[in-house]
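agent: user wants the full assembly modeled, not chains individually. Plan: 1) parse entity lines 2) check alphabet per entity 3) run joint structure prediction 4) return tokens. Steps 1-2 passed, two entities, 316 residues total. Proceeding.
--- entities ---
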Amino acid sequence: MTDERLVVRCQLGERDAFAELVRAWHDPIWSYVRRMLPPAVTDDVAQEVWVAVLRGLPRLRDPARFTPWLFTIARRAVTNRLREEYARPEEPLSDVASPDAVAEVLDRAELAGALSALPPREREILILFYLQDLSLETCAEICAVPIGTVKSRLNRARRLLRDALVQKGYSW
Amino acid sequence: MTPDDMLTRLSGRLSLRRRLAVVAVLLAGAAMSLLTGLLWATEPALPTRTQAAFGAMIAVGLAWVAYAVWVLTRRLPLFALDRVVAAWLGLAATVAVAVPVAVIAARPVALLIVAVLLLAALANLRRGLTRRAALLRRKRELDG
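--- prediction returned ---
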């Protein structure tokens, strides 16, 4: 079933359609949030995202654009949480995003570690483009920036990631 | 966390019964304010204390309405089917409560208020039905 049909069914008020939507999109959203924020808050922020989705679904005008709309909501929730974390001087961001041991194994430890050490903007664009497999246009829509900015952020993010991996002893 | 865990967390917000209960609170608050307002408007020379009591009752009813509107816009939004059900409830409440009172009161101001409310309830129902029909049409198109 396409996402658009699922979203239309949700907008009609079919309860089982929303359950299907959550089952289809929970993992991508949860893993996006998980890579952007500390593990301790991942579940709560993912729930915030779904609450916002539930609230906004009746007003979503173009169900075909569900994916960028969903990730825009997720990005807003993550940004709000990052802003709160920035406001706490005793918890710098680089410490905040370190993955737990189990996830490190699952996510290929070194790559996940290097990714979590990147600045939020660069980390976000790598996650959206490479890990969520979204197009440049969709990434641009989610981040509310021109496509050229997405490309330049991707370049910078790749370079930072490469430098981080080289520092850890990987050859390039 | 699994998708089913998330659905468990969201279950309260997905309950149709809770949505309709909030709609009922909205209608009850509106009906209370309206009836009191009509009584106030059509009774000549009420004592000051009675007027104050009517004013307080109207304020309480409007507070219920404001609370229900906040819940329905911020916490438990209405989907297409919910909107149609809520619109029918609104129309039924207007016909059942406001129309007999206005007819009994038989004052132009009361009849005018009820006429406006009836038109609003009908327009709300029409909007809900149109929106649901459009979504059903789109669903059929996507089904091929």
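agent: reporting back. Chain A has two domains: 1-91, 102-172. The CA atoms of residues 140 and 147 of chain A lie 5 Å apart.
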